[in-house]
From TrEMBL:
Keywords: Immunoglobulin domain, Membrane. Signal peptide: none annotated. It holds the Pfam family V-set. GO terms for cellular component: external side of plasma membrane. This is Ig-like domain-containing protein. It comes from the Eukaryota. GO terms for molecular function: signaling receptor binding. Residues 24-123 form the Ig-like domain. Transmembrane segments: none annotated. PANTHER family: BUTYROPHILIN, ICOS LIGAND.
Length: 274
């Protein structure tokens, strides 16, 4: 049996593999991209609903991602068209066994329809709390996650899934989810320290998305660049900002006025460290 459903930026082909053929044979699982697809910017996922956490086959950025492939299918899956440029997204499954029986789903995503995301820079001093904002208009949300860009395995926050061990010890006991009827899914990170500086990726997982894909890379819904300034640096930074504001006010009040004097040592030190 084969079913097809399509929504903006996403196509699903579903095929039942009954395995009437003899074990040890090869089996073609068919899927074809719509005629208007952007084949050069296509993300292809072959999955099985009963298998969690890993793909049957994943293709994006012009190449297969074998690191995310389920162990049972390593070395057994081949694209009919290795480039996908013909629109043929079928895969051939080699040496089938009775354990391969099940429903196989081909998910096609267009990168041109990836949700727009914001990038926010936050500068704070040590000991303060910061908000990692996420907001949705779709209330069928199963989980919220924040991760560090420099370490995809370092979960800052992971809610709605049975994987509490995935949170990095650095953030244990310091995160809290704000969830209300307006769709606010902001996560508060308490008592930040210089070691928390970095780029944070936030993602919202909807009800229709399967758990087995939640732990792997996807396009973030929001990005926060957190800069936790050292106490000394932050003090000098505030002094310099105050001086610049005073000088700007002086010049606006009287364009012919000589810029007000200030502690050049502080300004030079801060500028050299920036």
């Amino acid at each position: 049996n084969k079913t097809i459903s399509q929504s903006r930026g996403h196509l699903l082909c579903s095929t039942d593999l009954a395995l009437k053929a003899f074990s040890g044979k090869d089996k073609l699982l068919p899927c074809k991209a719509p005629n208007d697809s952007d084949l050069e910017n296509l993300v292809l996922e072959w999955t099985r609903p009963d298998l969690e956490k890993q793909y049957i086959f994943l293709f994006r950025d012009g190449r297969p991602f074998l690191v995310s492939q389920h162990e049972k299918f390593k070395g057994r899956v081949e694209l009919s068209d290795p480039t996908l440029l013909s629109g043929d997204l079928s895969i051939k499954l080699h040496n089938v066994t009775q354990q391969d029986k099940g429903r196989y789903e081909c998910h096609i995503f267009s990168k041109s329809h990836v949700r727009k995301r914001s990038i926010k820079t936050i500068e704070v001093s040590p000991g303060q709390d910061v908000s990692l904002p996420l907001k949705t208009t779709d209330f069928n949300v199963t989980s919220v996650m924040w991760k560090r860009e420099d370490d995809p395995e370092r979960f800052v926050f992971l809610s709605g899934m049975d994987h509490p061990h995935h949170q990095h010890p650095q953030y244990s006991g310091r995160t809290e989810l704000t969830r209300d009827q307006t769709g606010d899914l902001t996560v508060r990170l308490r008592n930040v320290q210089p070691g928390d500086s970095g780029t944070y990726h936030g993602r919202i997982v909807q009800l229709q998305q399967r758990v087995k894909r939640e732990l792997r890379p996807s396009e973030p819904d929001n990005i926060v660049i957190l800069k936790v300034l050292s106490s000394e640096w932050h003090s000098d930074y505030l002094q310099l900002r105050a001086v610049l504001q005073m000088c700007t006010f002086c010049l606006l009040s009287n364009p012919r006025a000589v810029p007000c004097s200030h502690d050049r040592g502080v300004g030079k030190k801060v500028l050299n460290e920036m």
